[in-house]
Amino acid sequence: MDSFSVLLPDISFGKKHLMDQCSLTIPKRALTLLVGSNGSGKSTLLRTLAGLYKTRPNYLSSDFVPRISSAFDFHGFDSRMTVKDNIHNFESYAGECLSISSRWSYCEETLGLAMYMGSKVRTLSLGTRQRLRLAMTLAVSADLYLFDEPFRALSSEFQKAFLIALDTLAIQQSSVVLSSHDLTLVSGMAHHAILLTGTEGASQVQQLTIGSTKTPLSIRIICVSPTTPDVGDFDISTLDSNKHTYLMEGYLTSPELLLALTKLTSNEASVLALTAVPSSEQ
Question: Which end of the chain has fewer CB atoms within 10 angstroms, the N or the C?
């Protein structure tokens, strides 16, 4: 089986509706990027996959329920304790002896954490805490890894180091779902994308398989943007000036499309609909 399917439930908090029920197909030994504007529900989707809400995801294969490692699991550091003691605390939760595992040794070295093992967590910078959180997530042996904005607070040096560790320990062996405001670092590594169109509470899920990096796709995007979109080589026409709705049409490769979507959503635009088909199929 090269992928697994999961049915995500409706999610609401009180009277606030966050996400409609939807089904996803997540490829194995692959990186899936989660793309959407602020407020489209990326974190809600990841938290739902991680099983952090009362209503749990339903994995549709009767013989496969993935072991999950999520960076959400490692937000609760005891700031009064050392890094080493925090790791020992999480070992019982993870069911693995992380501190002596080869995976932890690799993460510790790759993400530059060895010098901090005796330091209290409260003395660490935000960037070092983020590296620790990512290292502990990757040190757990799992089938599915979930990351929400993993590059936040990381220097360019450790962004690259994290990507090396992510590829070695997760992408080559398991499934990874990752969200980031800036996908420029990972667009060339992606195999699959989940696009959230609309806004949280009214989001629609669209899945894109990333094909050849050289094959152009015929792209058609309908979006709402506070200003006329300026994200690359698109023909842009106005569908409704009062509602700031635009039609964007052009030809891009898969990595170029992901970068265009990143720029579009970072400029506070919301994608309402997207079609992307190989130009040879037109």
Answer: C
